[in-house]
Amino acid sequence: MFIDQGITDIWFPFSTFSLPNALSSTLHPQFLDVQKRVLTKSIDLEKDGGRKHASFSSDEALPFKVEKELGAGRFSHVHKITSTISKREFAQKQFRRGAGLRNAAEIKNFMMELQC
Predict the structure, then answer these.
(1) Region 57-115: CATH code
(2) I want to staple 70 with a disulfide (CB 3.0 to 4.6 A). Which of 19, 43, 45, 78 is the partner?
(3) Closest Cα partner for 113 from 57, 58, 53, 60?
(4) Where do the structural domains in the chain lie, given as residue ranges?
């Protein structure tokens, strides 16, 4: 029914007011509860145009395809990535662990990197 109406996963998350009319109202509460199990940070990132960052842990599957490296610095690598959901392009900054912050200037530079 969702596919027939042109609704894809990029429409998630649904609210009580945004669920399609074709979905029986008796199923609304169950659907709204179950959708939490399939939502990912990537959908939140793609739906919220003002959101710049999403953090993924090393054990989370990334819904992105790495296209190429855009650059690298002391603390991070930056890659051009494409969403496997929407096919939109993003920049992914991946921080190196254990880069060895040795002084106040390096800590300040690292904190500036986090803000970008």
Answers:
(1) 3.30.200.20
(2) 78
(3) 53
(4) 57-115
pLDDT of residue 60: 73
CA pseudo-torsion sign 24, 28, 29, 32: positive
pTM to 2 decimal places? 0.50
Write the DSSP assignment of 98-109 as a string of letters.
T----SHHHHHH
Rounded mean pLDDT, 35-58: 65
| Contact of 70 with 79, CB cutoff 8 Å | yes
- Higher per-residue pLDDT: 49 or 2: 2
Nearest Cα to 45, choosing from 7, 81, 3?
Answer: 81
Q: State the burial class of residue 103 (Cβ atoms within 10 Å of its Cβ: 0-12, 13-18, 19+).
A: exposed
Q: Which two tokens stand for residue 29?
A: 């509460």
Q: Are 39 and 10 in contact (CB under 8 A)?
A: no
Q: Please compute the mean of the pLDDT values over residues 17-31 and round it to a whole number.
A: 85
* pLDDT confidence band for 45 (50 / 70 / 90): low
Query: Which tokens hold the place of 88?
Result: 């939109």
